[in-house]
Amino acid sequence: MAPTKTILIVDDEADLADSCARLLRSVGYGCVVANDVAGAMALFDSEHPGLVLCDITMPVSDGFEMARYVHRKSPDTPIVLMTAYHSSRSLEEARAAGASAYLRKPFANRQLVALIDSLLGRNHNGH
Predict the structure, then answer these.
(1) Which candidate among 25, 31, 67, 85 keeps its CA 20 to 30 Å from the CA of 119?
(2) Could you give the domains of the chain?
(3) CB 99: neighbour CB atoms within 10 A?
(4) Percent of the chain as helix, strand, coil, to the nearest 5
(5) Phi then psi dihedrals of residue 39, to 5 deg
């Protein structure tokens, strides 16, 4: 079986980022975590992740900026933006920034895994 791509998780809430990483590692993904956009950009450049999972609302810079950065550097890398502050404007801005998907917090673990599996073309039954 080919190695599974790494997922870059970006959230200023370290507990949430770590719980997402634990969940995704438990189903076979590799994960790297950043708690701000500047750190995430550096990790993106060094790790070349297969997918980016990024919170929208963070101090200093936001998930839209991260999405635009990823989309500019690697247009084929899926970007999932997540937010607890849903609005139609943020959904439109996520699409405009190049996001592949938009996830509203709180979300179920299975919802996150199913979304990432579908974006990375992975099937849990047969891998």
Answers:
(1) 85
(2) 6-119 (3.40.50.2300)
(3) 26
(4) 45, 20, 40
(5) -65, -35
